[in-house]
Amino acid sequence: MATTGDRKEYPISMRLPESDVAMIDRAATLRGRSRTDFVRDAAVRAAEEVVMENRLIRMSPEGFADFMKVLTAPAVPVPEIVELAERPAPWEAGYVTKR
User: Fold this and answer.
1) Which InterPro entries match (predicted)?
2) Could you tell me which of 35, 31, 37 has the C-alpha nearest to residue 20?
3) Angle 18-31/35-53 helices, nearest 10 degrees?
4) Model pTM greater than 0.85?
């Protein structure tokens, strides 16, 4: 079991304009989170995206050839997506909303 002494935390301090803090507070409140939790989660999520965008993917020449074969193969229609795309939009189908 971890004890309080085992936990390592590193404080981060920022100076932000009042308008930024107000926006962060509003968003945190909408999510039911504290400002600290909201900012930490947003920062970690942004950091993960950057790391994943810059991650090197390695594969064998055979694996790359298979990958390219899949990418260059003709697309196979998905019937549900085709049906959805062919449906008229609500504003084109004569729908009228009552107020």
Assistant:
1) Ribbon_hlx_hlx (IPR010985), TacA_1-like (IPR014795)
2) 35
3) 90
4) no
Residue 2: is its pLDDT beyond 60? no
The pLDDT of residue 52 is 92
**Concatenated DSSP letters of 6-49:** G-----------HHHHHHHHHHHHHHT--HHHHHHHHHHHHHHH
pLDDT in tens, 27-62: 999 999 999 999 999 999 999 999 999 988 899 999
Q: In the block, which residue shows the tokens 């962060």? A: 24
CA distances from 89 to 51, 86, 92, 94, 96 (A): 39, 9, 5, 9, 12
